[in-house]
Design brief:
heterodimer, A: mainly beta, 6-stranded mixed β-sheet, 4-stranded antiparallel β-sheet, 0% helix, 52% strand, B: 4-stranded antiparallel β-sheet
Chain lengths: 114, 114
């Protein structure tokens, strides 16, 4: 069975510093991987996805993520954090083409400190 | 486009009552799904649909029914509400069913069962 792990419940970072939100996954086939962000009292918004090809994926709001097959990881990164990046971040996994089920991690709360 | 809309935004039910959460999308998306979000649990898939007339169960389907009579609408029915169904419910849609499409989420329905 496929699974997604986000090992940190909370990440604190100072404004202007680089940020990383970690995600590891387990799946039998080739995964489709996603990052979503949730602001308070809102639905989730898509940030970026990895399907195939270049391991470094760029997304919305300056975020990027690196797919590492050997480490089964898909960490979210941003070179310089903004206070407005403070939110709940979810990593999600689809088990390749023909899979209709998206599996989410438990989420990581990012707090950017002014 | 309104995107994905959900009604109601808030609902309080008594144990044993039934109700329907409404979800509609105006993007002509084939794939629609329902998730529940509980603290520390991430999002868990309840039911999904890959097109009108086609539905299937997700990870936590017990106590919920769905139907998809049109492309636009995907209501979620609680048959006999239980306190364990207290949660925030999100509907989502995607253009690509099983094809790594990004999902668009509604604003959510906060349900309390007493």
């Amino acid at each position: 069975a496929q699974s997604v792990a986000q090992p940190e419940d909370q990440v604190n970072v100072a404004e202007g510093n680089p940020l990383t939100v970690k995600c590891t996954y387990s799946v039998s086939g080739n995964p489709y991987l996603f990052w979503y962000v949730q602001y308070p009292n809102r639905g989730l918004q898509f940030l970026l996805k990895y399907i195939t090809g270049d391991n470094l994926v760029k997304g919305s709001y300056g975020f990027e993520a690196e797919f590492n097959k050997s480490q089964t990881s898909f960490h979210l990164k941003k070179p310089s954090a903004l206070v407005s990046d403070s939110a709940l971040y979810f990593c999600a996994l689809e088990e390749g083409a023909g899979s209709y089920q998206l599996t989410f991690g438990k989420g990581t709360k990012l707090s950017v400190i002014p | 486009n309104a995107g994905v809309t959900q009604t109601p935004k808030f609902q309080v039910l008594k144990t044993g009552q039934s109700m329907t959460l409404q979800c509609a999308q105006d993007m002509n998306h084939e794939y629609m799904s329902w998730y529940r979000q509980d603290p520390g649990m991430g999002l868990r898939l309840i039911h999904y649909s890959v097109g009108a007339g086609i539905t299937d169960q997700g990870e936590v389907p017990n106590g919920y029914n769905v139907s998809r009579s049109t492309t636009e609408d995907f209501p979620l029915r609680l048959l006999s509400a239980a306190p364990s169904q207290t949660s925030v419910y999100f509907c989502a849609s995607s253009r690509l069913a099983g094809g790594a499409g990004e999902q668009y989420f509604g604003p959510g329905t906060r349900l309390t069962v007493t």
